[in-house]
Design brief:
Elements (H helix, E strand, L loop, with lengths): L1 H32 L7 E5 L15 E5 L6 H11 L3 E5 L13 E7 L8 H11 E12 L5 H17 L9 H7 L2 E9 L10 E8 L1 H26 L1
Parallel strand pairs: 1-2, 1-4, 2-3, 4-5
Antiparallel strand pairs: 5-7, 6-7
The structure holds S-adenosylmethionine.
The site of S-adenosylmethionine has 21 residues, from helix 1.
Length: 236
């Protein structure tokens, strides 16, 4: 019951603030978002009220995941307003993306990674649905390098998790992206005065690092050959 009240409160705050915040960061978003071209297949995780829909060309195939059904009417209205022709919205979490393997050119996440329950599972799902060398477009706040700000982030963490739908201000997203087999090809650090302890923010693009996976396969093949060689030596 209490959880429901908090969730409703967060939803109301998102509805009244998301458009205003988006207007203040529009100039930064335009460049990486312009990498999405007509004909591409895109999956957005944590659509919110749909502030990103206007950045995409109208001839893409858009799949949006938003577990909070309170936002679905607003998303559908925005979808019509911006003229996205092929768009489908799922009441799903990013831990279980209802799309086929290797079917998506772009996954987009803006201020969603901080709230998901299981980041490892989400990255597995993103890797699964992305085509080889598919891209992840991200805009997220991360843990600060400054000792003082980081201390504030850790102090605020429990409150933020309760009051802002599980939002973790201390996420080390750069490490998480790299550890999950993605290579960052574009990144910009941004600080917003009004975001207080939710700074710095990173805006960028990461590519599903196919070569890294291939290297991993080569490494295991090399390991197996070395093992066999050692066993033969022992037999001799
Ligand atoms: C801070 S809001 C950001 C919304 C939007 N991306 C934006 O930039 O305005 C985070 C969104 O992620 C959604 N969300 C939370 N957990 C999620 C999960 N596990 N999978 C997908 N979306 C999730 C929330 O319902 C919320 O709409």
């Amino acid at each position: 019951m209490f959880d429901r009240v908090l969730e409703l409160n967060f939803s109301k705050r998102l509805i009244s603030n998301a458009v205003k915040f988006d207007a203040s960061v529009k100039e930064y978003k335009t460049n990486p978002f312009s990498e999405v071209k007509d004909g591409m297949v895109l999956c957005e995780i944590g659509v919110g009220i749909g502030v990103n829909l206007k950045y995409f060309p109208s001839d893409i195939t858009y799949f949006g995941l938003e577990p909070n059904s309170l936002f679905h009417d607003l998303i559908n209205r925005e979808k019509k307003r911006v003229g996205l022709k092929n768009a489908e919205i799922f009441k799903s979490e990013a831990e279980n993306i209802p799309l086929d393997d290797n079917s998506v050119d772009f996954v987009v996440s803006t201020f969603t990674f901080c709230s998901v329950k299981n980041q490892g599972k989400v990255f597995n799902e993103i890797s699964r649905v992305l085509k080889p060398e598919g891209r992840l477009l991200f805009f997220e706040h991360i843990v600060s390098d400054s000792y003082l700000l980081r201390a504030v982030q850790y102090i605020m963490r429990p409150f933020s998790k309760i009051l802002a739908s599980n939002c973790d201000p201390t996420q080390d997203l750069l490490t998480i992206i790299s550890k999950n087999g993605f290579k960052i090809i574009k990144i910009r650090y941004l600080n917003f005065k009004k975001s207080f302890f939710l700074n710095p923010n990173i805006l960028g693009v990461a590519i599903k690092a196919r070569t890294f996976l291939e290297q991993k396969q080569w490494r295991s093949l090399l390991g197996a050959s070395l093992n066999l060689y050692c066993q033969l030596q022992t037999i001799n």
